[in-house]
Amino acid sequence: MMGPYANQAEIWVDPLNLFQRSPEGHRLRKLNAILDLGFVGEEVVKTYGRRGHVSVDPVQIMKMRLLLFLNDVKSERELMRQIPLRIDSLYFLGDHLEDVLPQHSVLSKARKRWGVEIFAERFRRTVEQAVRAGLVDRRLLHVDSSLVRADAWLNSVVQVTLAKLDEPEGPCQKEPGEDRPGGPMNREHPSTTDAEAAVVRHGSWKSVPGSKVHRAGDDQSGIMTAVGTTTEAVDEGSRMLGLVEQHQGLSGVGCENNKRRPG
After folding, report:
1. Taking phi first (over 0 means left), then psi (-120 to 50 degrees means alpha), and beta for anything else, what does residue 205 get?
2. Does pLDDT of 132 surpass 60?
3. 121 in any annotated domain
4. Burial class of residue 11 (count of CB atoms within 10 Å of its CB; 0-12, 13-18, 19+)
5. CA 185/CA 102 separation, integer angstroms
6. β-strand 198-200 against 141-149: which pairing, if any?
7. Is 83 exposed, middle or buried (0-12, 13-18, 19+ CB in 10 A)?
8. What is the residue range of 39's domain?
9. What is the per-residue pLDDT across 23-33, written as a single tens digit (0 to 9) for each?
10. Which whole-number Å values give the CA distances from 51 to 41, 55, 77, 185, in the listed order?
């Protein structure tokens, strides 16, 4: 039987240059050249055991989390769908084209394992570096709050009784600033998959689970120097002083700028 000719031309062509897809001015190439995350492993090593399966490199996990925010991806699951399709992301992570990437659950497990303090420390160091680089002017501060839709299904919302809400250790423990009109009504409908979310109805939104992000940003470059997250029922005015104090502590605006003159 006559067969076709097996063409082997692909082994004689010039090698593929993937940098042509990610030019020198690409933000991930510039970031990768100056970013040093070697300290991450030292900080989180205490959260891992000495036996069992070998984990994904914490540095790579932190880089994935950076991609989540840099590319404005809505979920960790979606991020892991996008990374294999993007040459720039694979380069940033140091992966090969044929490498098998971890499941999205690796990110959520690491986030839970490391705890809030690890990420709070990362934020603190970031603000300190921005101050040292002269990116934070520290003379004018903007404070604002925004509603954010939670990554929770509407059917996860359940109705609870007022008696349950009044229990001190209940899942919807009362927060400062929650006495304004509509607060208790909102707390009647928590989400079973996101305890910090509450039913939100805002503008063109339908009633969906959501949270409120409170933040303070420096006027010069817009860098966030203080952040906080609450349920929608918390009045943003009740968080302003806390954000200002956090800004003062992280940006180095100390007592020397706030002392009252004698007399």
Report:
1. beta
2. yes
3. no
4. exposed
5. 41
6. unpaired
7. buried
8. 17-114
9. 888 899 999 88
10. 17, 11, 27, 48
What's residue 153's pLDDT?
55
- In a domain, residue 9? The reply is no
107 and 44 housed in the same domain: yes
The tally of CA atoms less than 13 A away on the side-chain side of residue 91 is 19
Residue 262 predicted with pLDDT over 50? no
Residue 72: which residues within 8 A CB-CB, separation 6 or more? none
d(C-alpha 262, C-alpha 116), whole Å: 41
Phi, psi of 144 (to 5 degrees): -155, 165
Calpha distance 6→236 (Å, rounded): 69
The pair of three-digit structure tokens given for residue 222, joined into one six-digit string: 């817009």
Per-residue model confidence as pLDDT tens digits over 187-214: 566 666 666 666 766 666 566 777 788 9
Q: How confident is the model at residue 138 (pLDDT cuts 50, 70, 90)?
A: confident
Tokens of 58: 């914490």
pLDDT at position 220: 85
Q: Which long-range contacts (CB under 8 A, 24 or more apart) does 57-64 make?
A: 58/110, 60/93, 60/94, 61/106, 61/107, 61/110, 62/37, 63/37, 63/92, 63/93, 64/93, 64/107
Amino acid code (one letter) for 56 = V
Q: Are residues 110 and 145 in the same domain?
A: no
Condensed to tens digits (0 to 9), the pLDDT of residues 143-166 reads 998 887 776 656 666 555 544 444
Same domain, 151 and 96: no
C-beta neighbour count of 10 within 10 angstroms: 6
| Domain identity same for 22 and 60 | yes
Q: How many structural domains are present in the chain?
A: 2
